[in-house]
Amino acid sequence: MITEFGHFALILAFLVACVQAVVPMIGAQKRWPGWMAVAEPAATAQFLLVALSFGALMHAFIVSDFSLRLVVLNSHSAKPLLYKISGVWGNHEGSMLLWVLILALFGAMAAWFGGNLPPTLRARVLAVQASVAVAFFAFILFTSNPFLRLAVPPFDGQDLNPLLQDPGLAFHPPFLYLGYVGLSICFSFAVAALIEGRVDAAWGRWVRPWTLLSWVFLTIGIALGSWWAYYELGWGGFWFWDPVENASFMPWLLAAALLHSAIVVEKREALKSWTILLAILAFGFSLIGTFIVRSGVLTSVHAFASDPQRGVFILGILVFFTGGALTLYAARAGVMQAKGVFGLVSRESALVVNNILLAVACFVVFTGTLWPLVAEMLFGRKLSVGAPFFNMAFTPFMVLLGLILPIGGMISWKRGKLGRVVQQLVPALVLALALAGLVWAMQTGRSLMGPIGVFLGTWLVAGSATDLLGRIGQSRDWRRLARLPRADWGKAVAHAGLGVTMLGVAGLMAWEEEDIRVAQMNAPFTVGAYELELLGVERVQGPNYFSDMGEVSLRRDGAEIAHLYPEKRSYPVAGMPTTEAAIDGGFLRDVYVVLGDAQAGGGWTMRVYVKPLANWIWGGAILMALGGALSLSDRRFRVAAGARKTAPARGVPAE
């Protein structure tokens, strides 16, 4: 009964979204207050109905209702509760229901917190948001219904993919969806502004918090996925340039560009046309990611489905919304003339360079991701584009970005003095060069990657600190730091976080040590500065798996540091093995141990890595997300908080 109730709630949400997409849009065009007022209660009702539907599906997974086809395919009665819950979105149909739940949530939030928006703009934003929801409701109900029943329920389910039975993967998809589905509200603001025919500083102030919120969630989601891949898959890496990884990374790059571009619109009423375009493209790339994951056009270990019918439906949604918005953008280009002028040396120019680098980097990733598909379609050749291409083509743009960020963050608006900024940054530059030189002197026979990474990371961290210290002036009144706006702290923390991540990436890739061998029992061996010894392998039973668990002693300079317990698990129901790496984590390095198969001649295959600065990668991501959250908590950048009661008059175009 609860399942039928959830299905009915989903159908009602679809109907409410249809009303919300049409009535407020007509009301805004005709200036009918009653029709425009429909948008807010409709957005709330739509969210509540989808939440009820999602709750009904979650209930079916928790109680193991095997009369539901989706539960049979993705759950098992012996599975721990956390993975029963995460099984709701660990499949195509359930993840799409999570998609529309978040889509409806952002629409409802725009209704709840958009009271200071001009009535016509608010109505149009909510109508556009609902039109996107209509398309995805139709996609779910007609091609991906999660509430299908089985005539003869089985005794038990087929279990969730064992790779997804992990805490990191339990929380990774919700955060990721909050990020790139959240960009839909930026898209709705852009399309609504194009229909209104007005983009001004108030619009930039309204769209910026939504972009920042989405970017923060995307950062957390991508970091969780990278962390999971690092410790769960047993291959020792943190990023594979897989098509689905790239599908979330491309919107992140464009969201970062949009965030910086919206600053220029808000402060100087410049870059209006470019900012609108970025808002459209950022959500467009989110839709491209959805198409990649669910169409089967590209092979990926992360893909949910490979159904051509579903792929065509999503492709139609992508073409309709992105193509329609770009057409409207072209038609309205004349009304987005920039008002603010600025010199070549200014913060505006630095932000333009920032945007160019991020956008081109996104295009590089996009080209590398889709090129195998293009090559097969046009030339009949099967190609593989892997890490060497992406590392070579993508890295230079990140190096340039790291070089200009400290300067761009400190230079003045409109007309700046480059010499003054460089003079302030001399201590940071000296420190970065000194550390890079020290690393170069210490390493022998290595590449430039390590010293360059240390220089860039130190330059970004020290540059952010210099920016903050510069705010206290000549008086050196340290209490002024506590009184700085949270947005200033947020910018410094986020930029420093990028520097810490760069340090981690460079350290891991430049100085990693690897050892692969057949380890014999009680036969110590050395990897780098560490001595390891396999003490034994024991057969253990988990809640829904069996495991060969090794015990490895880790020593340095003769002193025992830790006992590590790598595992090789087997899930009988799913019929699939997984590898559980054992990691001795440290501030400056990880020792990473993977247990392989037993060998006929005795011993076990074992891989050992020593990974310098590995945890700095995710520590930097945490700092970036924290910086975004600090900025978001600044009252000036909370949703519509910066708008005054007189602001609505500015956003309504003259008749």
In short:
The protein is an alpha+beta fold. The protein contains 22 helices and ten strands.
Distance between the first and last residues' Cα = 53 Å
Mean pLDDT: 89
User: Tally of extended strands?
Assistant: 10
* Low-pLDDT residue spans: 639-655
What structural class do you assign from the helix and strand content? alpha+beta
Radius of gyration: 26 Å
Biggest sheet architecture: 6 strands, antiparallel
- Rough outline: globular
Count of helical stretches: 22
β-sheet strand percentage: 5-15%
> Which percent range fits the helix content?
55-70%
Domain Cytochrome c assembly protein: 89-295
Function: Required for the biogenesis of c-type cytochromes. Possible subunit of a heme lyase.
Family: Belongs to the CcmF/CycK/Ccl1/NrfE/CcsA family.
Subcellular location: Cell inner membrane
How are the secondary structure elements laid out?
Blueprint: H1 2-30, H2 33-36, H3 39-62, H4 69-74, H5 81-86, H6 92-113, H7 119-143, H8 167-180, H9 183-196, H10 201-232, H11 243-268, H12 272-295, H13 308-331, H14 347-379, H15 387-410, H16 418-424, H17 426-442, H18 449-470, H19 479-482, H20 486-511, E1 513-519, E2 525-527, E3 530-541, E4 546-556, E5 559-564, E6 567-571, E7 576-580, E8 582-585, E9 589-598, E10 604-612, H21 614-633, H22 647-651
Antiparallel strand pairs: 1-10, 2-3, 3-4, 4-5, 4-6, 6-7, 8-9, 9-10
Helix pairs in contact: 1-3, 1-7, 3-6, 6-7, 6-8, 7-9, 7-13, 8-10, 9-10, 9-12, 10-11, 10-21, 11-12, 11-14, 12-13, 14-15, 15-18, 15-20, 17-18, 18-20, 20-21
